[in-house]
Structure formats: structure tokens, C-alpha cells
Amino acid sequence: MPAKCAAPRATAHLSQEYRTPAWEQRKLGELFEEHSEKDRDDLPALTIIQGGGTVHRDESNRNLQFDRNSLSNYKVVDTGDFIVHLRSFEGGLEKATCCGLVSPAYHIFRGKNVDSDFYYLYFRSKRFIDADLKPHVYGIRDGRSIDIEGMKTIFIPWTNLAEQRRIGAFFDHLDSLITLHQRKYDGCANPLFSERRISCRKPSHQNRCSATTTPSG
Fold first, then answer.
1. Cβ(132)–Cβ(151) below 8 Å
2. Is residue 157 a contact partner of residue 119, using CB atoms and an 8 Å limit?
3. Cα Rg for the chain, rounded, in angstroms?
4. What is the pTM for the complete model shown?
5. pLDDT tens figures, 141-171
């Protein structure tokens, strides 16, 4: 008796038709060029905020001492450049959010026809830090450094610029919404109460923030 053919799965064609194609992989050094411009002491000195971009040193709340006479040796960064700083081995690459000068000890990478918002997500991702970058980190503890030439050989995802911009804009908008709601929830604090328990939940129709409080005195 001939064996019966197994009935095809109803979703079998979907796995092929709607499968997301793998993104092309390119070397970091092919998409980003190391940039080292100096002798621009007319620009402001910047401070890196890990996970927060760059700010003018004069406007930061950090008490950082530096010799203004040595600014000619500092490196120029433009908005959207990526910075390999002293803590990049644990926090990834930082993105310049303003134009100015950074320490000559840092390495600056400028993208070629890429969207910086898109790659900022990747350069601060767990995968990039713990898997891609880690083989190029040497030294121990706080003395660790990154082999820049080795880092340039890392294969990173690439897609066309239009898609990069759509993805980057989406997550940038998402970050803005998160920040907005964090500020909204922080505003639930009532100075008339000394103790409060904030419970923020998301019902199906809207976001709410309720507070259970214990009056003081």
C-alpha cells in the first residue's frame, strides 16, 4: 500500500514568502572613516555623556579641569560623528550631538552615506559591545583599551539609507515618548505628602499614573 503524502502545512508558504531577508554585512571601516582634524581652538570644548551625547564643558555640571592653551591639539567632532572614548569598551561608541572639540585621546569616526541615529542604536547594543567589540579589547579593568584597527574589521549590518533613516527616526521618536512619559510620571509627586507609592500602569485605552499616599503629620 503506497504511503500517504503528508498534508502540507497551511503556513508553509508563509515562512518562505514573508521571511525577512538578512541584511548585508559590511566592515565598519568601509562605512565609517577615522577623522582627525585639529588646530580649531575657536570651537568649544565638549564633554561626553555616556548614553547622552556631547555637551559644552562650560555648561556641564562636571568639574573638569583642562588647559585651554592646549585646545589646538584637541580633535574636532561634528554632529553625528561617533566617538571611541575611554569607556567605550563597556558602553559602546558615543555620538556627537553638537560641534566642538574632544580629547586627543579619543578616536573620531565619520560615516559615509549613513544615518547616525540608526547606527547609534547598534554601536550601543549589547551585541556590539559584548560580541563584536570584545575581541578587540585588551588590557585589564579600567586600563582596557580598544584596538582601533581591529575594530575597523568588524562586520556590521547595512541597509539602504532610506531604510536606515526610517528605523533611526522611529527609535528616536520612541525615545522622546519615553522621556516625555517619565517626566509626566515624575510630576505625580505631591509635596503635601511625605510618603507615596507610585503605580504606573497602561490600561487598554490610555496611560494613567495613580498614587497611593500617606498624609504627613
1. no
2. no
3. 24
4. 0.70
5. 778 999 999 999 999 999 999 999 999 888 8
